[in-house]
Amino acid sequence: MPTALVTGASAGLGRALATALVAEGWRVIMTARDAERLHAVAQSLPGPGSVTAIAGDVADPAHRAELVSRITRLGALDLLVNNASTLGPTPLRPLADLSPAEVATTLNTNATAPFALTAALLPQLTAAAGVVIGISSDAAVEHYPGWGAYGGSKAALDHLMLTFGVENRDIACYAIDPGDMRTDMQQAAFPGEDISDRRDPSEVAPALLHLLTRRPPSGRYRASDWIPPVADDPTAPPDASTQATALHPAGSPS
C-alpha cells in the first residue's frame, strides 16, 4: 500500500486529494491546524487503518518532527503533498503596507515549512522513488495588486521544490498551479463576492492523480493540463501542450 502525507488536509484541495488517494487504495497521513475539522474528515473516509490524522501547524518545527518520526517508523514515503498554505494578512493590502513580520510569517508557512519538511523526508522519499508536490498558484508567476506576500511565497515554493527535483534524481518534484477553486482561502481573498464559478476542489484532485500516474519530468504544471480524458490510455505520454503551457498560467490568482 503506497503512503502519502498531505498537509492542509482538513479542507479544500488537501481534503479532496486525501479523499481521492484513499479511494485509490493509498495509506494517507493527514495534517492540518484545525484538529476538530481534521479528525472529522479522517473519520468520514473509508478504509479503517488507511487514514492517520495528526493535527498541528507545519510551520511549527515540533510538529514537523512528529510527522517525520511517524513516517520514519513506516519506512518509506511515496508522496508528499505540500498543500498547507496561508493567504497572508487579510484583507489583502499593497505590499508596501505590509510589515516585514507579516511577510516573514507568510513565507514561513508557504515556503520555509514545506522546504524543511521535504528536506527532512528526503531519505524516505528516495527509498520509495517518491513524488513531491508543492501546491502553487499563478500568483507565483504573475503580479497582482495585493497578492505580493502570497505570490512571493509561492514563487519561493516553486523554486525550492523544483531544485529538490534537480538535486535528487531518484524522486519527481512538481509545482502545481491548481487554478481558481471554491475554497475558504479564495473566499477570504474576495470577501462578499460570489465564487460559485470556481472549480470545486474535488474536480481538481483527479488531475493530480493523473499526473502521478503519468509521472512526467519534474517541473511546473497547471492542473488544468492534467484533467484526465474520458477514455484514457495510461501508456500514452503526456500531451505536448502540457509542456508548452506549463510555465504560462493565466487568470486570477489561484
Kindly list the characteristics that best describe this protein.
254 residues; alpha/beta; Rossmann fold; seven-stranded parallel β-sheet; 7 strands; globular
Helices and strands in order, then pairings?
Blueprint: E1 3-7, H1 12-23, E2 27-31, H2 35-44, E3 51-53, H3 61-74, E4 79-82, H4 100-120, H5 122-127, E5 131-135, H6 148-167, E6 172-177, H7 184-189, H8 201-214, E7 219-222, H9 240-245
Helix pairs in contact: 1-8, 3-4, 4-6
Can you walk me through this structure?
There is one protein chain. The protein is α/β, with parallel strands linked by helices and 254 residues long. The protein has one domain (3-245): Rossmann fold. The protein contains 9 helices and 7 strands. Strands 3-2-1-4-5-6-7 form a 7-stranded parallel beta sheet, sandwiched between helices. Strand 2, helix 2 and strand 3 form a beta-alpha-beta unit. Helix 1 crosses helix 8, helix 3 (61-74) packs parallel to helix 4 (100-120) and helix 4 runs parallel beside helix 6 (148-167). The longest helix is centred in the middle third of the chain and has 21 residues, at 100-120. It is globular. It starts with a strand and ends in a 9-residue tail after the last helix. The relative contact order is 0.13. The model is unreliable at 230-252 (pLDDT under 50).
